Amino acid sequence: MNCRSEVLEVTVEARQVEEAMLALLHTILLHRSTGKFHYKKEGTYSIGTVGTLDIDCDFIDFTFVRVSSEELDRMIRKAVSEFKEALSNSGSDGIGQISLEFYQKKKSRWPFSDECIPWEVWSIKVNVVNLANEQERQICREKVGEKLGEKVINVVEVINRHEYLPKMPTQSEVDNVFDTSLKDVQPYLYKITYQITDCLGTSVSTTMRRLIKDTLAL
Amino acid sequence: MDSELSPQDKKDLDKFIKFFALKTVQVIVQARLGEKICTRSSSSPTGSDWFNLGIKDIPEVTHEAKKALAGQLPGIGRSMCVEISLKTSEGDSMELETWCLEMNEKCDKDIKVSYTVYNRLSVLLKSLLAITRVTPAYKLSRKQGHDYVILYRIYFGEVQLSGLGEGFQTVRVGVVGTPIGTVTLSCAYRTNLAFMSNRQFERSAPIMGIIVDHFVDPPCSSQRPANMGQPCNYRAPDEEDGGQFAGVQDSQEVCNTSFSTSPPSQVLHTGKEGGVVLVPAQPPQGADTHLTVEHAPNTPGSSGEDDGLSQSGEGRRDDRRSVSPSDPVESLNAFTRKVGAFVNKPNTQMTIASLDLPFAAFAPRGLDTEENDPMVHPPESPPCLSPLQGSLHSEGSEGSGPQDDFVMVDFRPAFSKDDLLPMDLGTFYREFQNPPQLASLSLHISSQSMADDLDSLPEKLAVYEKNIDEFDAFVDMLQ
């Protein structure tokens, strides 16, 4: 099937990267998480409750809603902070992209390993700017808040098109569709990856690939 | 059309739409309460959480919503609208946004009601949660309190957007197709907040006298005109407004020992029946104010704020009470003594040289005797009269020391207020007319210390020379 792909782009100051990423990733995950499934004998299931939590950003004039799950929050924060580290180590001109991919597992027969088939990918492109003085920073706080609001509206618009979603699985298949490892909520299976572009505009990974190819060509 | 829908499905669908409408109202109003919302996830289904979301039900809001719906459901041509408006302390009001839950004729016959429609309505509610934090009214509602409050009004029928001013924007939250029509949720919000910027936010903090609950009515809506809307805050139905007022009075009495540096910034919230505490996440105003013991009784109080907040507020108030003088006037009266001829108001003559606090006149004295009173025993100071002193003295002062016992009847310095505290400025003048000589300036003492210094100089130099390496190392470290 075709994988739905959405790209969001934001321009932020270095100290706003973390909160901006958390805001967008959590907004997406809020829509892509359900309560825990409890399967009953007749093949039906009931669903737990998803709580929500308002989070005020410190460096951006913005408040976002996330799922009330500390485990999920920890995992997202970990990924975002790795991304932030990589971005700051790349130099001040760094442009980066963090991707949230929802996938389904397809069991393959031995000896092949399970396939991961993405059905929705959200890519958030980040441009980091440096600001000279406090006044500019204050304006940036407000502007980035407004931009994030627009991005949230974009996310909601895409999600409410109600396009492809994996079928609700039977009990034996549930781990192929949902991440059942958390104890209070159940997001769709997801993975977060990122990519940093150095200031020459080429991504580090493509440079490495080129080097290896060139070496092998000799 | 309906014949294709089974009776059970129709029944389920109606129920879903009804509860979706009620939950929509709850989400919108709770997002405008001015506080952060937090609900817990629960892995075991409770059966009462509609759409598998932890959305609390504020009874008053449910009551209003049911009243507006009057047994009907949102349908084609019958929209349910939640209007959010702002009302200032001066009585001006302005519509900020209108949320509309509508139904159109576009049907989706093939969709499964009990499964797909239900899940999509759940996703739509999540979208509503996200979008309610994004529209401009959210930030305004987080700052509501003394200057303005946010009100909500629920109505059913035709959508009215004329109150939103020119250039209002619309954001669509989402749609869900059902076999009987498509449910649409959207928000139209005002963009022209010019009225606000000119009037509201340039005002300085209001003076004492505005009670925070002035324009917050009790939950009973009969006291409020139908078009005004309910306030977006919540108090338990059994609380009397008298409780609020009592709080104001208490704080005024206690203000003897406390001083509020800023007006309360939040409308009071107290816990609701379900155990959800909608208390603002700010410390009580009292927590920030620094306790100084002596203050006038009419300072702006943290009016009514201490009431609903935690126990610590109560404890603090009690502490203050025990420290403060119970009645400043009493302590003044106890302190009369003879100062001189023509003196009829003892409070204008007091000189409390030892205290330099504002309103020091109210200090619990009791211990000041005539012995220590500089009025009776002036300090040993050279009799130099500054021109200022000369002008202040009313009679017989040339050549005599400023601490003249028989002068200064009703001393009223220029610009001092002619009410409770005339002595404030007067006291200041008195105190600082004759400051004691600086010890180092007196020749006798200064020459002595200079001589000592000179004597000890060779010793000091010897010590420094011995430790010269240490000093060098220190300087290197600094570089």
TrEMBL record, chain A:
* Any GO molecular function: protein kinase binding
Q: What does the entry give for GO biological process? A: autophagosome assembly
Family per similarity comment: Belongs to the ATG101 family.
UniProt organism field:
Betta splendens
Where is the protein localized? Preautophagosomal structure
Q: What is its main location?
A: other
What name has this protein been given in UniProt?
Answer: Autophagy-related protein 101
| Keywords on record | Autophagy
Q: Name one GO cellular component term.
A: Atg1/ULK1 kinase complex
Automatic annotation (TrEMBL), chain B:
What GO terms fall under cellular component here?
Atg1/ULK1 kinase complex; cytosol; phagophore assembly site
Keyword DNA repair present in the record's keywords: the answer is no
- Locate the compositionally biased regions of type Pro residues: 376-385
Q: Where are the transmembrane segments?
A: none
Encoding gene, per UniProt annotation: atg13
Query: Which GO biological-process labels does this protein carry?
Result: mitophagy; piecemeal microautophagy of the nucleus; protein localization to phagophore assembly site; regulation of autophagy; regulation of cell population proliferation
Q: Name one Pfam family in it.
A: ATG13
The record's comment on protein family reads: Belongs to the ATG13 family. Metazoan subfamily.
**Which source organism does the UniProt entry give?**
Betta splendens (Siamese fighting fish)
Which protein, by its recorded name, is this?
Autophagy-related protein 13
Coarse class of the protein's main subcellular location: cytoplasm
Q: Where is this region: Disordered?
A: 276-331, 366-402
